[in-house]
Amino acid sequence: MFRVDLRTRVYELSPQQIITRDNVSASVNAVIYFHVDDPAKAVLEVDDVDQGVTQLGQTELRDLLCQRAFNEILESRETLSTQIAERVKERVQKWGVTLEHLQLKNIDLTQDNMIRAMAKEAEATRERTAAMIRADGELQAAKRLTQAAKILRQNGVAIELRQLQTLERISKETNQSTVVIPQSMFRSANSLLAAGIVGTLNDSGDKAMDFDDEKAV
Fold it and tell me: pLDDT tens for residues 118-129?
């Protein structure tokens, strides 16, 4: 003759060592509540109903959490607890057992794993932010260049002024001793002088470049 306790039974599942989908090692345990509905099945269908339910809970916990990322486990504890409970509940019904509740309890990491996981997340966040900033900067630069190209295309004098500004920048380089200037540049400068737009282009030293028909010093 067997005596079966019909009261709710409470067990803490032993910590399960898991490796998450993103390769983070963790130790996870849970608490489980259940009671026997059918004493005959609890005696005849399984050798030790308490051991069977707790071992099944540990197995389902480990199998499900190994398929999840570490952050997902932390953020979705309630959802994961419900999913594990549903899987256990379906299996223990044939033993005459009703699962009342299963809840993830502790999620423990070693200090090294915690530092590594946090460093990976922080690095990924920084890289994503930097990529977004670079992309936004390139987009703004492309828009500005497009606007500048339209303006320059409409005004030939503006293009010639831009050429002279570039030449001035080159002449200010301290390691620049020789600058090769195409003849067309002097013709552009002469046309601008004739229009009274530019005069003398200063370089990085005391010398100056005067544009006229006879010489360029």
Answer: 778 788 889 999
